[in-house]
From TrEMBL:
The keyword Ligase does not apply. This is AraC family transcriptional regulator. Pfam families: Cupin_2, HTH_18. One of its GO terms (molecular function) is DNA-binding transcription factor activity. Keywords: DNA-binding, Transcription, Transcription regulation. Residues 187-285 form the HTH araC/xylS-type domain. It comes from Lacihabitans soyangensis. InterPro entries: Cupin_2, Homeodomain-like_sf, HTH_AraC, HTH_AraC-typ_CS, RmlC-like_jellyroll, RmlC_Cupin_sf. It comes from the Bacteria.
């Protein structure tokens, strides 16, 4: 699989790029780019990696990312199977900070927008009425060209800068420390864990895959992701459990083992540590 860390996403002709993405699965490459990105999932499920954040995604997931924030929407394993008829659909908007000129957002009148854009360096996930409005606007922007697209984008950014319907995605102290030389290494880690989290994952196996000793890999991974490798695996497993709980087709015990945990007590412990409530409490809240 080709590995893309720095991704060329901008249009040569347009200062704002809007794409309707319909594929068998979302781009499986972990990457970053110098553009701001507004993205919503219309169809598809999987795991979203942004900076040091790992979250399950489903239709409606809507985020705004600042420049050079590493990200990956990894579709569920079933999307990659040869006989899969599942599809994904998302709408993405890209623009650079200087798309209206180098100093545009430095003007006095743009102070509110400038603060908003600075906040996006941590990534923002939107909810409530704001999330719905973003989806509507993105659907419109796909079919708008030229000057009207610019006006519509500025109006949307102004609205978002006034809204409180968001949560930051990365931790406050997150910094992108990844280098081009590390692209293949991190891609292998994400791919391996995404494919094998339901099985027993041994530290030695993943360290060998990236040609490092276990101790060196542990130090490297902790420095780049702000978490241990074990915590990383457990977060992916809990994300899968959250997805299954929302589908309401399996009981907690079945979900425990399907997500890669060996015992109910271990499952409950890690689920509460990550989510803040037990699986049963989480499931009850979903029904209310």
């Amino acid at each position: 699989m080709p590995v893309v860390l720095e991704k060329n996403v901008g249009s040569q002709q347009e200062s704002v790029t809007v794409l309707s993405l319909k594929e068998n699965f979302f781009d499986p490459n972990w990457h970053f780019h110098p553009h701001y990105q507004l993205f919503t999932v219309l169809e598809g499920t999987g795991t979203r990696f942004i900076g040091d954040s790992i979250q399950y995604f489903e239709p409606g997931d809507t985020v705004f990312l600042g420049p050079n924030l590493p990200h990956l929407w990894r579709s569920d394993k079933i999307y990659f199977e040869n006989n899969s008829e599942l599809k994904t659909h998302g709408i993405v908007l890209y623009f650079t900070e200087d798309f209206l000129g180098k100093d545009f957002f430095g003007k006095f009148e743009m102070a509110g927008l400038k603060v908003f854009l600075e906040n996006s360096n941590r990534g923002m996930v939107w909810s409530g009425k704001t999330q719905g409005l973003i989806v509507e606007k993105l659907l419109e922007l796909v079919n708008i060209k030229g000057f009207k697209r610019i006006l519509s984008l500025l109006d949307l950014l102004h609205f978002l800068s006034q809204s409180k319907d968001y949560q930051f995605i990365t931790n406050e102290n997150y910094t992108n420390l990844h280098k081009l030389s590390e692209t293949e290494r991190m891609q292998k880690v994400y791919e391996y864990v995404s494919k094998n989290f339901k099985e027993s994952i041994k530290l030695g196996d993943i360290a060998e895959k990236v040609n490092m000793s276990e101790a060196a890999f542990c130090r490297y991974f902790k420095k780049r992701t702000n978490r241990s490798f074990v915590d990383f695996v457990n977060e992916i497993r809990v994300g899968n459990a959250c997805k299954l709980l929302s589908q309401n087709k399996m009981n907690v015990s079945e979900i425990c083992y399907d997500s890669g945990f060996n015992t109910i007590s271990n499952f409950n412990f890690h689920f509460k540590k990550i989510v803040g409530k037990t699986p049963s409490e989480y499931a009850r809240e979903l029904k209310n």
